[in-house]
C-alpha cells in the first residue's frame, strides 16, 4: 500500500514543482515598476522624483519668462513692502492683498462692504482696527483700504495707491 501511495505522490510533487517554477518565471518576466512587477528600487523612485522636479522647474521658469498679459493664477504680482506715514491711507484695487506688519491702522470700507480678513474669515468694516499679520483682500476697486493711525509697514500684492 505504501508503494501505491508513493507512485501517486511522486507525479503530484513533480507537477507542483513545475507549476511553481512556471509562476516564478512569469513573475520574473515583467519589467520593474510595471503592473506585472510592482516592486521597484530606490534608484527608480529617485529617478522619477527627479524627472517630476525638473518638469515642475521647467514649467515655473517658462511661466515667469512669458511675455504679454495673463489673467490666470500665475499672473499674480510680487509682494511689495510699502511704508505709509501716519495720517495717510493706502487704497487697494480689486483682488489686491495686504498684510499689516507694523504700526496701527483702521479699515476703510465702502457702501458695498468691507475688506475680507482671510485669516479669520470675517468682513472688516469701517472703524475696525486692521489686524497685524492677517491676510486681507479687497474684492472691488471702490475705495477700500487702510487708514494709517501711526506710521505703518504693509506687505502688498496687487495694485494700490497711497493718498
Please give a handful of descriptors for the protein shown:
163 residues, Jelly Rolls, 2 domains, 4-stranded antiparallel β-sheet, signal
Question: SSE layout and pairings?
Answer:
Elements: H1 2-28, H2 42-64, E1 80-84, E2 89-92, E3 97-102, E4 105-108, E5 115-117, E6 122-124, E7 136-137, E8 145-148, E9 152-157, E10 160-162
Antiparallel strand pairs: 1-9, 2-8, 2-10, 3-7, 3-9, 4-8, 5-6, 5-7
What does this structure look like?
- Keywords: Signal.
- The chain is an alpha+beta fold and 163 residues long.
- The protein has two domains: 2-64, no CATH class; 79-162, Sandwich (Jelly Rolls), CATH 2.60.120.1030.
- It has two helices and ten strands, in the order ααββββββββββ.
- It has helices spanning 2-28, 42-64; strands at 80-84, 89-92, 97-102, 105-108, 115-117, 122-124, 136-137, 145-148, 152-157, 160-162.
Shape: rod-shaped
Largest sheet features? 6 strands, antiparallel
Cα radius of gyration in angstroms:
33 Å
* Count of separate DSSP helical elements: 2
Instruction: Say which CATH homologous superfamily of the largest domain is assigned.
Output: Clp1, DNA binding domain
N- to C-terminal separation?
109 Å
- Percent helix range: 25-40%
Question: How many independent structural domains?
Answer: 2
CATH-derived architecture of the largest domain: Sandwich
SSE succession: HHEEEEEEEEEE
- CATH topology name of the largest domain: Jelly Rolls
Signal peptide: 1-27
Keywords: Signal
Amino acid at each position: 500500500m505504501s508503494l501505491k501511495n508513493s507512485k501517486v505522490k511522486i507525479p503530484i510533487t513533480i507537477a507542483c514543482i513545475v507549476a511553481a517554477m512556471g509562476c516564478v518565471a512569469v513573475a520574473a518576466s515583467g519589467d520593474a515598476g510595471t503592473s506585472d512587477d510592482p516592486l521597484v528600487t530606490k534608484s527608480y523612485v529617485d529617478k522619477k522624483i527627479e524627472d517630476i522636479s525638473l518638469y515642475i522647474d521647467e514649467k515655473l521658469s517658462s511661466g515667469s519668462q512669458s511675455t504679454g498679459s495673463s489673467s490666470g493664477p500665475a499672473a499674480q504680482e510680487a509682494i511689495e513692502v510699502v511704508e505709509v506715514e501716519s495720517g495717510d491711507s493706502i487704497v487697494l484695487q480689486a483682488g489686491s492683498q495686504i498684510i499689516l506688519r507694523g504700526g496701527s491702522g483702521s479699515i476703510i470700507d465702502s457702501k458695498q462692504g468691507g475688506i475680507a480678513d482671510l485669516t479669520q474669515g470675517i468682513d472688516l468694516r469701517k472703524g475696525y482696527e486692521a489686524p497685524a499679520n492677517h491676510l486681507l483682500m479687497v474684492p472691488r476697486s471702490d475705495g477700500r483700504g487702510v487708514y494709517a493711525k501711526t506710521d505703518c509697514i504693509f506687505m502688498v500684492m496687487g495694485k494700490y495707491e497711497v493718498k
